[in-house]
Write a structure and sequence with these properties.
Layout lengths: L8 H16 L8 H14 L3 H14 L5 E3 L3 H9 L3 E3 L4
Parallel strand pairs: 1-2
Helix pairs in contact: 2-3
Length: 93
């Protein structure tokens, strides 16, 4: 599991423990027909690629009236997220 032996066994164990802690904090969102419909609308409205549109639609469904940070490095997706009032991370590319 330590590709190229870049990590010691102890470092790998700590990294996996950290990943497990982070994973517990993630919200898993199923791709539903409703989400795909929203993604399709976002793709047309913002000229997004399919995966980017799903990313945006998923984030929008999570936000539901809350302020949500949106992390991405794709210029078109960032612009679409900005238009939907997401807080962008990083703030600038």
């Amino acid at each position: 599991m330590r590709k190229g032996d870049r990590l010691t066994t102890a470092q790998l164990r700590r990294a996996l423990d950290d990943l497990e802690k982070l994973w517990r904090g993630f919200y898993i969102h199923a791709v539903s027909e409703t989400l795909l419909t929203q993604a399709s609308e976002a793709a047309r409205a913002h000229s997004l690629r399919a995966y980017d549109a799903v990313h945006l639609a998923g984030a929008a469904s999570f936000a539901a009236g809350e302020e949500l940070d949106f992390a991405c490095w794709d210029k078109e997706l960032r612009e679409a997220a900005r238009k939907q009032s997401f807080v962008l991370i990083p703030q600038q590319l």
